[in-house]
């Protein structure tokens, strides 16, 4: 039940934040491996990107990749948050009755690795679909998938089973770092808010406040890994399924840093917060409330 509740909470958040995921993906691919000023800027900032995509691709364009997004959230975060909930309920994250920063970080990272490996094929497809756009505002490599099933079948047919896990070398550090930052900060922030007695112990505002604190830390820690992950997943491949732009995580990280500087690794930071911030807050809030609700009626 921990896995089901966690997946349901993440899907609830995804319904609200998927348009921002589309914006974030486009901004991270814009000007890929090009120096500032040498490429056309289609998306000036998160608000302009939102408007441009809605105007050119239509409102449906802002919900591209929603189906794989929901599947990804259910399976990846179901496994990730569900694993963490089991670790937490077993008492592992506490030392002498208090939340341990080291233990929550390790538990969050381990749960993130498991979730990332499980969800990688769906994330691959989601990235391809979200980057697809009208040629006048296209950024990054453009795949021609007609939907999630068509994309999975095409990748499997052309590149085999391993092709479905292409890019997972970036997904694992991305999700493990993000998960460690998110869950350790959330657990510690919840304990802090309860200690300060700002709200009643079982108030929904405790989880909401902790989620808001966690969201800032997650975005700052995760964005460079997120940029690398998006680019590895979306790069063109040869007939053997080998990436034509990057050899792997380290190669993509170093090339981006060399060509675009540190700001290249933080491309789409505003979009990342507008997407990851609300998603972190909503998913953790829904997760905490669903678990409390389940315990009351179990």
From TrEMBL:
Membrane-protein topology: Multi-pass membrane protein
UniProt cross-references to InterPro entries, sorted A to Z: MCP_dom_sf (IPR023395), MCP_transmembrane (IPR018108), Mito_Carrier_Antiporter (IPR051508)
A Pfam family hit: Mito_carr
Intervals holding Solcar repeats: 1-90, 99-192, 202-293
Cellular-component GO terms for this entry: mitochondrial inner membrane
Domain of life: Eukaryota
Location in or out of the cell: Mitochondrion inner membrane
PANTHER family: RE38146P (PTHR45928), SOLUTE CARRIER FAMILY 25 MEMBER 35 (PTHR45928:SF2)
Family in the record: Belongs to the mitochondrial carrier (TC 2.A.29) family.
Protein name as annotated: Solute carrier family 25 member 35
Highest classification ranks of the organism: Eukaryota, Metazoa, Chordata, Craniata, Vertebrata
